[in-house]
């Protein structure tokens, strides 16, 4: 699923790939030839909603206050951020990150600096059995379309600060470009999905064996 020069835009309602076992890698997988899930502003918002990175009520408010042209511009920034981070991941995957990687991650820190979080008292989600019926919840102010990039950058920050890059892998499928975090017990995962690339590899190996056995 290598990136195409002119990828087709995903049809509305077609779910994106969420096979990476980490939101930051799912973001990189938001283009899989020939399909682009971030082709325009509304599509980017749909992807954020599918990834559970923005509340539904905030989506409606932001779309009502922001014109399509500005949202399209932010989607363009998102695609640029995606391809920059893809290069970073491919450079470092398969081995632990070193302290020197911090300098390369400055673009992520610049986006994170825009974050506007605050806490509120709300009903306790844990329900009965808790010491109090109330609890603290964290919220974010979505003042501008640019703030849509913050949760994406946050997922990148979590990937580089909480996960072992030794287990960030690229699918071994012949025509696949998807990335994933190998969380299997023996870290032996090879495919984005056994149902997709894993099955294709099995079929190809079976055909190759049959050809070798022919007289």
CATH architecture: Orthogonal Bundle
**Estimated structural class:** alpha+beta
CATH class wording: Mainly Alpha
Strand content: 5-15%
Terminal CA distance reads 35 Å
> What would you report as the Rg, rounded to the nearest angstrom?
20 Å
CATH third-tier fold name: Jann2411-like fold
How helical, in percent, are the residues? 40-55%
**Record field, number of beta strands:** 7
Name the average pLDDT. 88
Structure report:
- The protein is an alpha+beta fold and 215 residues long.
- The protein has a single domain (8-105, 149-213), classed as Jann2411-like fold (Orthogonal Bundle).
- 45% of the residues lie in helices and 12% in strands.
- The chain has helices at residues 23-28, 41-50, 56-65, 68-92, 101-104, 106-112, 149-162, 194-213; strands at 8-9, 31-32, 35-36, 117-123, 134-140, 168-170, 179-181.
- A three-stranded mixed β-sheet has the order 1-3-2, with no helix packed on it.
- A hairpin with an 8-residue loop joins strand 6 (168-170) and strand 7.
- Helix 2 crosses helix 4 and helix 6 (106-112) crosses helix 7.
- The chain is globular.
- Residues 204-209 have low confidence and may be disordered.
